[in-house]
Amino acid sequence: MTALRLIHGAAAATAAGSLAVTLWTGVEDPGVALAFGVLTAVGELTRWSGVEVRQAAPLGAAGALSYALLGADAGRPSGHGAAQVVTVVLAAALLGAVPHIWRGRTPTLDHLARRVLTVGFAAVCFQPLYGRGVFASWGGPAYALLLVTLLGLTELCDAVLATALVHSRTGWPFGPLLREELRGLPGIGSAVCATGAVMALAVAVAGLWALPVFCLPLLLTQLSVRRYAAVRATYRQTIASLARATEIAGCTPAGHARRVAALCLAVGRDLGMTEGELTVLEHAALMHDIGQLSLVDPVPAGATAGLPPEEQRRIALLGGAVVRQTGVDPAVAVVVERQADPYREQPVAARIVRAVNAYEEKARDAGPEGPLRALEELRLGTAGEYAPEVVESLARVLSRPHGWRETGPAGRGGRRTALSDPVRSWVTHG
Hints:
Blueprint: H1 2-25, H2 30-45, H3 58-68, E1 72-73, E2 76-77, H4 82-103, H5 108-131, H6 140-170, H7 174-206, H8 210-243, H9 245-248, H10 256-270, H11 275-286, H12 309-325, H13 330-337, H14 348-363, H15 370-380, H16 388-399, E3 404-406, E4 415-417, H17 421-429
Antiparallel strand pairs: 1-2, 3-4
Helix pairs in contact: 1-4, 1-5, 1-6, 2-3, 2-4, 3-4, 3-5, 3-7, 3-8, 4-5, 5-6, 6-7, 7-8, 10-11, 10-14, 10-16, 11-13, 11-14, 12-13, 14-15, 16-17
C-alpha cells in the first residue's frame, strides 16, 4: 500500500499547493476557467459506472487536458498558469463526483488522484514554457504535433498511475497490468488525446464557441463505447445464468461456479494473461461443470476431481458440446473440453480451471484445515495431474494479504476471501 499512499499524498500536495497559489494570485480569465470547468464537470457527471472501461470519464479527461494545453483564446494569449489549471480541474472533478460519491458507485479517490496528477503533469510541461514565449515561433503543424506529443506522454503517465493503484490495491503483478493499460491506449485513449488537442487548437483560433462543437464527436464515441460495454456485461450475465443451471438442477453446490471463476481470474492475472485470455478463462470457469447436465446419474456433490480420468474426460466433452450449442466463443468450448486432459497437453486456461476446480472441491466443507489439505493434495498431484506453475500461482494468490475476490469482469470489486494466517504461512514457506 506504499505506492497507494504515495500517489494519494502527491495528489493531495499538488492540489493544496495549486489552490494556495490560485487564491494568492487570483483567477486569470475567469470566463475561460468557467467554460472549461463546466465542460470538465459535465464529463465527470457522465462518468461510467457499472461497466468495465479503461477511461471512465473521457469527456472530462479531454476537457481537463485541453485546458492544461490552452495557450490562447481567440488569438489572445491566456493568462492562467499550471496552478490555476489544477485548481479548476479539481473543483470541476469534485463537483462532478458528488453524485457518484452519494451513490457509492466508484473508487472516486483514486480517480481524483489520477486526474490531478495527470493534468498537473501536462500543465507544468506546457504552461510555463508557453508563458515565456518559447512556442511563439512554432508553426501550425509543429505546434499541433507538440500538443499531441504532450498528450501522449500524459496518457502514458496516467497508465502508469492506474497500474500502480490497481497493483497496490490487489497485489496483481505490475508488468501484465501495465501491458494491458498500454494496449488500451490506442482505443479510447487516442480519442481523448485527439479531442484534447483539437479543442485547445480550436479555442486558440475561434474562441470558447469551439468547445461544444469539438467535444460532440467524443461524446458520441463515449455513448457508443458505453453501449458496447453494456452489451458485454449483459453477455457475461447470460453466461453466468447458464452456469447456474447446474446449481438449479442440483448437480453442483450453490456458488461453486462463481467461486471457481473468481479464483481462476486471480490465478490468470498472477500468470500474466491478457484481458482477452482472462475473458475466455472466466467464461470457461463459469461453465466448466455444464456437462453434468447430460449425466443420467449425477455426481455426488458435483465433485468431478475424484472421478476416474476417463469419466472426467467424458463429462468435459459433454460440457464442450453444450457450450458450442449456446453460441459462446468457441475458445471457451475448447477450454471446457480439455480441462480433463493431461496437463502437458492442455492450454493454460484449461490447466487453471482444472487446478482451481479441484482446489475448490477439496477445500469446501472441510473445516479450517480444508485449504491446507487441498493445496497439499494439489502439490502432490503436480507429478501428473496438475500443472506445477498453476498450483504455485494458486498458492501465491491465496497467501496474499488481499486474498482473492468473488467479482465481476476483470476481477474488480466484490467480497474478499482470504486464507487463515496458519495456512498462509504454510503456503508461503511450506
